[in-house]
Amino acid sequence: MTDQPTPAYAGPERVLSGVQPSGALHLGNYLGALKKFVALQDQFPTFLFVADMHAITVWQDPALLADQTREIAAAYLAAGLDPKKAAIFPQSAVRAHAELAWVFNCVARLGWLDRMTQFKEKSGKHKERSSIGLYTYPVLQAADILAYKATRVPVGEDQKQHLELTRDIAAKFNNDFNAPGFFPQPDPMIQGPGARIMSLRDGSAKMSKSDPSDLSRINLTDDADTIAKKIKKATTDPNPLPEDAADLDGRPEAKNLVGIYGALAGISSAEVLKQFGGQGFGAFKPALADLAVESLAPVSDAMRRFLGDKAEIDKVLADGAGRASEIAEPVVAEVKRLVGFWPGRA
Ligand code: AQP
Predict the structure, then answer these.
(1) Which whole number is the average pLDDT over 267-273?
(2) Of the candidates 22, 202, 245, 334, which lies 20 to 30 Å from 214 by C-alpha distance?
């Protein structure tokens, strides 16, 4: 007997991604995520959530969380997302995420989650005191994606392992419930400039909201002077920039700054070095600072403008949640049917 090939997913292409409202957004979030979303909204139906359910896996002040959620929505709009094209919504406003996450908690295996490096990094030495939510975070992430049967998920490099888990959960669900091709195998779309922006203080650590040093990151809300100061203080080595991009290997800080320049300018590291190869950081850093200010100032100005009209942001979020629910609810209803839950309505 020959194995029949498993029918592939044949539904429509959809883009989905999210950002946590857990602090000020930084250049890594902008280049690794937001900028990519903008390019995709014209090509595919796009769903962008504010990951408030993910954010509470670590403590969030309840008095601030709703405003933090609005800030991420404002950042989406300021980066150039059009709420008529992309549905922008709070994760907690679409119940399908939580419902599907429970089913996936029963599909995913403990051994799979034990391998997740982000939990190890985030829980650090205090694993026992971490929330269970922080541990099952990647399962909720799988639900976020698969509730929309999303086929493309633009994220930074740090999310690669979680996306692999999503693919495993989708395959196991399809197999366990005899539903070949029900869930797609989503493509993580990690490639491209800005996929991994590193800390300005340590070229081996990723730029992160939770880094205690504010000098390690450029926030989207930093003013021109602060951006210039942070780039001036960025850790570097004493050598001039090389002519050849291959010679950036073994020089993580130089590689990071050249990569940031390239991602902002929309050119490759090789092209950056054509311009700056042989020059020292004394010449390169001011050019980078000018470019960063020029690129980010319109985003932070627009963010401030959008945040000035909370009612408008709330309208965008409510409208997005409605459109998102229209897609996700029937998927979850079908999941419940496949699992064999009682078919009536309470
Ligand atoms: N340094 C980075 N370079 C490129 N992309 C990055 N992303 C995050 N850091 C970088 C991408 O930004 C999106 C949203 O991330 P998130 O806020 O949902 O969560 P995160 O990855 O946990 O971001 P942080 O800044 O590192 O937050 P903390 O410090 O709270 O953990 C994702 O697509 C992510 O890949």
Answers:
(1) 95
(2) 245
Per-residue pLDDT at 211 exceeds 80: yes
From 17, 52, 158, give the residue whose CB has the most ligand 1 atoms within 8 Å, as the site to mutate: 158
Catalytic residues: 122, 206, 209
179 alpha carbon – ligand 1 mean position (Å):
33
Rg (the chain; Cα; Å): 21
Q: Is the CB of 32 under 6 A from ligand 1?
A: yes
Class of the CATH-defined domain 15-195+310-339: alpha beta
Once rounded to an integer, what is the mean pLDDT over residues 22-33?
91
- How high is the mean pLDDT of the chain? 94
156 lines ligand 1 (CB under 6 A): yes
* Domain 214-305 class, CATH top level: mainly alpha
Domain boundaries, the chain: 15-195+310-339, 214-305
Compute the Cα dihedral for 286, 291, 294, 300 and give only its sign.
Answer: negative
Report the pLDDT value the prediction gives residue 234, as an integer from 0 to 100. 97
Residue type, 253: E
Q: Is the shortest distance between the CB of 20 and ligand 1 below 6 Å? A: yes
In the reported structure, the alpha carbon of residue 156 is separated from the centroid of ligand 1 by a whole-number distance in angstroms of 7
